[in-house]
Design goal:
By secondary structure, the chain is an all-alpha fold. The protein contains 23 helices and no strands. It holds the Pfam family ARM_FBXO47.
């Protein structure tokens, strides 16, 4: 049928009718394209659009995503369906404060729904350039208020940002690094994230508590939490931190991974200053530091990470040295040694000696093997360039132990009844730490000095 039409169009020999001949060819080409488009719809071409969309209501979102791969014509119909009011109601569920879907079996939830929706939009927009894909997806999701950084009135009781993060993770899985840069820039533009980060890092810690909380939730739930590979997590954390000076990077790292209140979820800025803290409060920071130190984070040198740790230890003011030591232990051997070696190289032996004492104290309190602290000190001793420097450092360690014991003993004698118990417990841990530390040194000395018979 198509070939007959073409023959009739091209059979006119008269040259003065060439314009009409060209018009006829265009018409035939359009008819041909429409015919091909209809043929790729298969049996669906006989259905009115309304009936086709009605059939979609009987398919799961995952099944619709499979259907989108049948042909370009089907995919275009699905793109149009997603933009219709009925498609919006079906696909853009917004009950983020009640994660069980109505009428579904136990365990089916809105989070799984948005993972499937991410797959559907990934497949429907497969042939579009990255910018056009992002614009279309923004157009689809723009009315979902809980996907916005400041959109939900109750962010701690909402899974909207989590759904958005999983949706994006499925959508951009397999995209190259340049495309992911575009995604981050697009998200920053939509959420106005840089301006909001600037507001919190340049103001007094805790003065914008609600904004700090929203930045924390957005960065974690949308950008960081859902990646399987550490290299992906390192990439997105780097995008968040790298635009800022080191001092602001440390502030932002604390906002995203630092300890929060169990009552209202706000960042607790005084936690590292007022008293010893537990591992739970430091684990997020330690994991982030390890992530940046790993080889996957190509944009960070060892010096960068150590400088960041140093800067972090004075956010918002200088931490208790015990908390600093606990963070180093949780960050792993390589980071701990590099941090201590940096102090040794820069002539900060007295400061390093106090740190060794607190590493021993944390090992005693948290039940780590004390020989780890001794071996770490032994390794650091090799960094000193002369025996004299090494001897000064070792003498400083012993002096630090003595001064700390005396300070804690004075606190016990001067304290009231409530403080006395705490001060005595601290003294007890320190004396035990000193004894076990020196015991491990004696063991090490005897083993290295013994000769086989």
């Amino acid at each position: 049928m198509t070939s007959t039409a073409r023959a009739s169009c091209t059979s006119v020999p008269n040259q003065k009718h060439r314009g009409s001949n060209h018009h006829c060819r265009q018409s035939c080409s359009a008819v041909d394209t429409d015919s091909q488009s209809l043929s790729t719809l298969g049996y669906f071409k006989t259905l009115p659009l309304e009936i086709f969309q009605m059939l979609l209501s009987y398919l799961s979102v995952k099944d619709i995503s499979v259907l989108s791969m049948v042909s370009k014509a089907i995919s275009n119909r699905l793109v149009n369906y997603i933009s219709t009011p009925s498609g919006n109601r079906r696909l853009l569920l917004q009950d983020f404060h009640n994660i069980k879907l109505p009428g579904k079996r136990e365990g089916s939830c809105i989070i799984e729904h948005y993972k499937s929706l991410g797959l559907l939009l990934k497949r429907c927009t497969l042939l579009l350039p990255t910018k056009d894909r992002l614009r279309y997806i923004h157009k689809v999701l723009s009315e979902v208020s809980c996907f916005k950084l400041s959109g939900c009135p109750s962010p701690l009781h909402c899974v909207g940002l989590q759904c958005y993060g999983l949706f994006l993770q499925i959508l951009i899985a397999g995209w190259d690094e340049l495309e992911c840069h575009r995604v981050f820039n697009f998200l920053c533009e939509l959420s106005n994230l840089p301006r909001k980060v600037q507001a919190v890092v340049s103001s007094k810690p805790g003065s914008a508590r609600k904004l700090e909380l929203r930045i924390r939730l957005f960065c974690r739930s949308v950008l960081l939490n859902h990646w399987v590979h550490r290299s992906d997590s390192a990439f997105w954390l780097t995008r968040i931190l790298k635009p800022w000076p080191m001092v602001n990077q440390a502030r932002l790292l604390y906002i995203i991974f630092g300890p929060v209140s169990s009552l209202d979820g706000h960042v607790v800025w005084q936690k590292m200053i007022e008293g010893p803290t537990d591992e739970t409060s430091l684990k997020g920071l330690a994991d982030a530091i390890k992530l940046l130190y790993d080889t996957e984070a190509r944009e960070w040198t060892a010096d960068d990470v150590i400088s960041l740790v140093d800067e972090l230890s004075v956010v918002p003011r200088e931490w208790l040295l015990e908390n600093n030591a606990r963070l180093l232990i949780l960050s792993g051997n390589n980071i701990c040694f590099t941090f201590m070696a940096s102090k040794a190289v820069n002539g900060r032996a007295v400061e390093l000696a106090r740190l060794v004492v607190f590493l021993a104290l944390v090992c005693e309190k948290d039940l780590y093997c004390m020989d780890w602290a001794v071996k770490m000190m032994q390794k650091v001793c090799k960094v000193f360039s002369t025996p004299g420097e090494r001897n000064i450092f070792l003498q400083s360690v012993e002096n630090a132990f003595a001064h700390m014991v005396m300070d804690m003993l004075q606190a016990v004698l001067a304290g009231n009844r409530d403080q006395e118990d705490i001060s005595f417990l601290n003294l007890f841990h320190l004396v035990n730490a000193q004894a076990n530390f020196h015991k491990e040194i004696l063991y090490l000395t005897m083993r290295s000095g013994s000769n086989p018979i």
